[in-house]
Amino acid sequence: MKVINLSEQNSILNRFVAELRDVNIQKDRMRFKRNIERIGEVMAYEISKTFDYEPKEIQTPLAISHDQLDQNEVVIATILRAGLPLHHGFTNYLDRAENCFVSAYRRYKDRLNFEVMIEYLSSPSLEGKTLILVDPMLATGSSMELAYKAILTKGTPKVLHIASVISSQPALDYLQKVMPEDCTLWTAVNDPEINEHSYIVPGLGDAGDLSFGEKLDD
């Protein structure tokens, strides 16, 4: 698995991530979601550089223009619910893409131990297509692994990209072992560790709650 950490080169992306982390700015729910969306737009642009392109003649009012247009059949797959703003950012740029949604949540056995559950999947055929699997937070990597396995029931993609806003080093180490060798993982930043509750440190907290409000635990 190839890992591309966009924070290794300074860009405006740094400010989007910093505002997501800032405990004062992240209280503005609209801005929090918009920053995740903007990161999705940047990532969509970067990933589009890997697509296949073919020449096409375009008729303008004055003459024929010769342009290179992308040819990939793209499916953007999102892990609910935290992934929705990131998904929106990707579709802002990859507006011809099909869409897939899968639910994954932590079911706690006690205060520290949990298992990841998958209970919903809606997807087009993935056979031979370019799959971009997005989730803003990669803490342990287990949700991503299970979501990918569930999605494979809809076909085998030709190309796999994984996109995350903040990943942890333990998650990257784990996904290196369980995901296809030829996939590419894109992250805006990679943090060094997770705590005893499996939250990324320094991270930013719970992306789902910050985007949509705190949920009631069962």
Describe this protein with a few key phrases.
218 residues, alpha/beta, Rossmann fold, 8-stranded mixed sheet, two-stranded antiparallel ribbon, 30% helix
Describe this structure in words.
The structure is a single chain. The strands form three sheets. Strands 1, 4, 5, 6, 7, 8, 9 and 10 form an eight-stranded mixed sheet that branches. The model has no long low-confidence stretch (mean pLDDT 92). It is built from six helices and twelve strands. The longest helix is centred in the N-terminal third of the chain and has 20 residues, at 29-48. The chain is globular, with a radius of gyration of 18 Å. The protein is of the alpha/beta class. The chain has one domain (2-50, 74-202): 3-Layer(aba) Sandwich (Rossmann fold). It has helices at residues 13-21, 29-48, 84-93, 142-151, 169-178, 207-212; strands at residues 2-5, 53-59, 64-70, 74-80, 98-108, 114-122, 130-134, 137-138, 159-168, 184-191, 193-194, 200-201. Helix 1 (13-21) packs antiparallel against helix 2 (29-48) and helix 2 packs across helix 3 (84-93).
Number of domains: 1
SSE class: alpha/beta
What is the ordering of alpha helices and beta strands?
EHHEEEHEEEEHEHEEEH
In angstroms, what separates the terminal alpha carbons? Answer: 36 Å
CATH class: Alpha Beta
Calculate the mean pLDDT score and round it. 92
Q: What portion of residues is helical?
A: 25-40%
Low-confidence stretches: none
Strand proportion? 25-35%
Strand elements, count: 12
Shape: globular
CATH architectural name: 3-Layer(aba) Sandwich
What characterizes the major β-sheet?
8 strands, mixed
Provide the gyration radius in Å. Answer: 18 Å
The number of helical elements comes to 6
* CATH topology tier name: Rossmann fold
